[in-house]
């Protein structure tokens, strides 16, 4: 590589770096990366919330089923008590 081509390459690199500083390309790159990271974190939070809500709904539905079983067993006990007290002798 000749000394003139080295000088041209060095000058080109210097011009590009100066333009990046003046135009704020580095700052835009930071803003874009920051927005991507924020979006990724929000999606991760949303995914965790969905998983939590599905597990919560499973717990709630099991509680509802348990309450229904309890009501049925209470009704059966009430029927037995009624028949034992007032049923045929």
UniProtKB/TrEMBL annotation:
Pfam families: DUF3774
InterPro entries on file: DUF3774_wound-induced (IPR022251)
Top-rank lineage group of the source organism: Eukaryota
Name the UniProt record assigns to this protein: Wound-responsive family protein
């Amino acid at each position: 590589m000749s000394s003139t081509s080295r000088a041209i390459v060095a000058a080109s690199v210097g011009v590009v770096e100066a333009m990046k500083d003046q135009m704020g390309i580095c700052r835009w790159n930071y803003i874009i990366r920051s927005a991507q990271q924020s979006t990724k974190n929000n999606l991760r939070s949303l995914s965790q919330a969905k998983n939590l809500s599905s597990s919560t709904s499973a717990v709630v539905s099991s509680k509802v089923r348990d309450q229904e079983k309890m009501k049925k067993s209470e009704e059966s006990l009430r029927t037995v008590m009624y028949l034992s007290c007032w049923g045929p002798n």
